[in-house]
TrEMBL record:
Participates actively in the response to hyperosmotic and heat shock by preventing the aggregation of stress-denatured proteins, in association with DnaK and GrpE. It is the nucleotide exchange factor for DnaK and may function as a thermosensor. Unfolded proteins bind initially to DnaJ; upon interaction with the DnaJ-bound protein, DnaK hydrolyzes its bound ATP, resulting in the formation of a stable complex. GrpE releases ADP from DnaK; ATP binding to DnaK triggers the release of the substrate protein, thus completing the reaction cycle. This is Protein GrpE. HAMAP family: GrpE. InterPro entries: GrpE, GrpE_CC, GrpE_head.
């Protein structure tokens, strides 16, 4: 090729490059750069696949944990219910004996019922059940439920004067508030 031909070809190439950059921008990279970018892209794709797999395994583990926890909770509830029933069965047995007996003496029957009540109270105490103190204390909305108000000039406002239904706690946690009459002058 002559110098003149080379000079004519060069402006043509420049004009093609100018047209490519103006109308259709293209990036020209060396094959080594393309290979490097492809390897980086493949590595990123592999990392994404790995993270997706890890996420799916963690999700499955969490679902299994949730299912196991629910099953353990149900089993624990069953065990606790069985323990409570076992504590109360002797009381039920004594009530059955009392109702089956042909006691003609009311005092004997009353004594038997009191003994059974004491046995029930002891069984509940062993399970951590305690009654809420109400009469003679100042009304506490976290432990008492006021259902009536009475006027009494001898008592201060807010004093509980009568308990209509006992309240109970289990191991310090209120399970039923006391229904009470409260002084309101």
């Amino acid at each position: 090729m002559t110098q003149k031909e080379k000079e004519q070809e060069q402006p043509e190439q420049e004009s093609v490059l100018d047209e490519a950059s103006d109308e259709n921008p293209e990036i020209c990279l060396a094959s080594d750069d393309v290979n490097q970018l492809m390897s980086v892209l493949e590595e990123k794709s592999r990392l994404i696949d790995e993270m997706n797999d890890r996420y799916k395994r963690l999700q499955a583990d969490f679902d299994n944990f949730r299912r196991r926890t629910r099953q353990e909770k149900e089993e624990l509830s069953t065990v606790v219910a069985e323990q409570i029933v076992c504590e109360l069965l002797p009381v039920v047995d004594n009530f059955e004996r009392a109702t089956a007996s042909k006691a003609t003496d009311l005092d004997t029957l009353a004594t038997g019922v009191q003994m059974i009540f004491k046995q029930l109270h002891n069984a509940l105490s062993q399970m951590g059940v305690e009654s809420v103190n109400a009469v003679g204390t100042i009304f506490d909305p976290s432990q008492h439920e006021a259902v009536m108000r009475v006027e009494d000039d001898t008592q201060p406002d807010g004093m509980v004067v009568e308990e209509l239904q006992k309240g109970y706690k289990v191991k310090g946690r209120l399970i039923r508030p006391s229904m009470v009459k409260v002084v309101g002058n």
